[in-house]
Specification:
Elements: E1 6-11, E2 14-20, H1 21-30, E3 36-40, E4 46-47, H2 55-62, H3 87-95, H4 99-114, H5 116-136, H6 142-151, H7 154-161, H8 166-176
Antiparallel strand pairs: 1-2, 1-3, 3-4
């Protein structure tokens, strides 16, 4: 996990904590967990942690490992994963300057540079939508809030959330902010 990531924990509709992973794990490990929901603020996804054992064991299990030395580029955050492509795609990638990995990195960087605001807006919409569905799916104005979020209508989004519990409304607005900039 990203060391700069924050997580938000709710007890029902009340926000208990927004903090980095270590602080979130400490809160969750320390006390009763019934009714607590924790969300990754980057994605809006609910997260569950294995909280068994001591706090040190929990932290060791979930915190990012220290960068290792050795082959590869661990300081750059290089992570190996599987990619499935057709043979013609692999052939094309292998002919590119620097090989397949370098070509894929260049293609991704070019795509991200082409529309950085669009990517950031889409990520914010997805994160806010996941959070809205998990915490506000039963609240009045949920459908209107979702429509306004994807339409980029800040005023309509805020109006739809007006009757929501303050902590839920505040966090939804925080997650949706990049999707509603300039509105």
């Amino acid at each position: 996990m990203d060391a700069d990531a924050t997580f938000t924990t709710f007890d029902g509709h009340s926000r208990r904590l927004t903090a980095p992973l270590a602080d979130t794990l400490t809160l969750l490990h320390a006390g009763p967990r019934a009714g607590l929901l924790t969300f990754d603020d980057r994605t809006g996804r609910g997260v569950d942690f294995d909280l068994s054992g001591t706090l040190d064991e929990v932290l060791a299990r979930h915190l990012p490992p220290e960068p290792r030395s050795g082959p590869g580029r661990p300081k750059l955050g290089v992570v190996s994963r599987e990619v499935s492509l057709l043979p013609r795609h692999w052939e094309w990638l292998e002919r590119q300057r620097g090989g397949a990995s370098a070509a894929l990195r260049r293609l991704i960087d070019e795509a991200r540079r082409a529309d950085p605001d669009g990517e950031r807006r889409a990520q914010a919409q997805a994160a806010a939508d996941r959070f809205l569905g998990a915490v506000g799916g039963d609240l009045p104005g949920f459908e209107a809030a979702t429509r306004a979020l994807y339409a980029g209508q800040r005023a309509a989004f805020e109006d739809a959330l007006a009757a929501w519990p303050p902590d839920v409304r505040t966090h939804a607005l925080y997650l949706a902010a990049p999707a509603l900039e300039g509105q």
